[in-house]
Amino acid sequence: MVSVTVNDVGPRDGLQNQPKILAPAERVALVRALLKAGMRHVEVGAFVSPKAVPAMAGADEVLAGLANGEDNGAVFTVLIPNYKGYELATAAGAKSVCMVLYGSDAMAQANARMSREQAESATADILKQARTDGVRVTSTIAVAFACPFDGPVEPSLVEDIAGRFLELGTDELCIADTIGAANPRQVRSLTASLVGQHGPERISCHFHDTRAMGLANVFAAVESGIRKFDASIGGLGGCPFAPGASGNVATEDVVMMLEQMGFDTGIDLDGLMHASELAQELTGTAPGGRASAWLKRYLKRTGN
Amino acid sequence: MVSVTVNDVGPRDGLQNQPKILAPAERVALVRALLKAGMRHVEVGAFVSPKAVPAMAGADEVLAGLANGEDNGAVFTVLIPNYKGYELATAAGAKSVCMVLYGSDAMAQANARMSREQAESATADILKQARTDGVRVTSTIAVAFACPFDGPVEPSLVEDIAGRFLELGTDELCIADTIGAANPRQVRSLTASLVGQHGPERISCHFHDTRAMGLANVFAAVESGIRKFDASIGGLGGCPFAPGASGNVATEDVVMMLEQMGFDTGIDLDGLMHASELAQELTGTAPGGRASAWLKRYLKRTGN
């Protein structure tokens, strides 16, 4: 069986978009529920300004609370917005960081108050330091298909950025459809080109479900050879105050589809449903995966 | 631009699974809303026992009420369960019928009280008569991937049935994932094989969204060259009394995805949203497409 890795970004991308702010101990409990289901890659927080993103305050406490989990081989990644974030994260013990690159200038400005080039330069600096420090770096290209401000993003721009950061030695290069605007033909085309040029080993994808095409996009990418995906437990994410905003593809839906297609994720669906229920309990707003009604019946039927 | 045809089965597959029974005039109004959006293929009813399926009573009145619409080039298909159904349908003026074949014996028994072979024999007889009568026939292979009673269906069986009925001259051969059990890898494999053997002209696909993989399956099939899909306005279908049951893929989601991938459906999304709202108004239970929140914002934003 071919393995596919799923990285749960719910405790970061999901929770930062929820109205209810969870305490670090609650976030640790959610991560632990994911680990119990067999998940080995989790994005557990962000070292960003607690004023700008209050839901991510106490990321150091989350990392401290998970110290044992990491001993079991799990990779806990934290998002960092800049070099200062890198210093804070590594001081708190982070061994894996995610830095954001951009497919558009407007999004770089809106998200990080930098130009696209400044974000690239900052990431290059972090990569250099991280090699010395033995820290793992994911470079995520946000709005890799379309920007809410600047519109469609040229695939050639994304391929150029991806090529440069793979060359610079990023451990992972993540293609992110931040606003859920991509269609599976675009995804198939871009991912096939990237895998053709660089191989699949260091490339991953990150999809949102705004236009209901999340799973179609995962399928399109897996057909191109992509073997690592971000997803969010319970479909956490989006913003309940923005009509139509939608979260990441739900981890349970992605794992179900991959397993049914014959891939090995190493993740237990029943354990994932427990984590999803915990996410819903803690936040009060997580929608749950879209196949959750079916999954509940299925897991009951087979005696799990 | 490559054309893809979408056949709305909401007025049949959708409405027959709703708790609220609509009068023929209401069903005509729903079909007219679909025509207004540019839809040219609609499954408008079924000539089945009104005792067994009360929601489909008065299919003759629906056909009569649509006589003008057909003059504008629309294809109105009605489902028939057997030869008697064919006679009733054609007596009521039907010019296009859909007959059901089966991927399993248990489903044939449960749905039509026939063996799989009996359903095939009845369909062959109908096909012969329909050629004489100038009536269009769609042969749908139900439970083409999995049966709720007998489990997984061998692709070779479906290929065998499909080959025989294409040979017999069916105007359309529809591969139906009746219970929403297929994954996109299975769909890709089966449809690629069928298109490779027979060309895409007479093959269509019908997906349900039970496991949230409906759009992924449409994408998988379109990648194989399939150019006609069933879908249901507002995601009508499933049964509100059966937890986890889910309707057909929503027409508005399918049209949106196809159009965004650069295909031409000839269907107007704004008109489709009006039809979807009418479906919700009439039934009180139609969920609406899964991307409807996004679509509403999008259509408003672009001034439609």
Describe the structure.
- 2 copies of one chain form a homodimer.
- With 304 residues, the first copy, chain A, is an alpha/beta fold.
- Chain A has one domain (5-301): TIM Barrel.
- Chain A is built from 13 helices and 10 strands.
- In chain A, strands 1-2-3-4-5-8-9-10 form an 8-stranded parallel barrel, surrounded by 9 helices. Chain A has a two-stranded antiparallel sheet with strand order 6-7.
- In chain A, helix 2 crosses helix 3, helix 9 runs parallel beside helix 10 and helix 11 packs antiparallel against helix 12.
- Chain A starts with a strand and ends with a helix.
- The mean pLDDT of chain A is 93.
- Chain A binds chain B through residues 180, 183-186, 188, 210-213, 215-216, 218-220, 223, 243-244, 246, 253, 256-257, 260-262, 289-291, 293-294, 296-297, and chain B through 180, 183-186, 188, 210-213, 215-216, 218-220, 223, 243-244, 246, 253, 256-257, 260-262, 289-291, 293-294, 296-297.
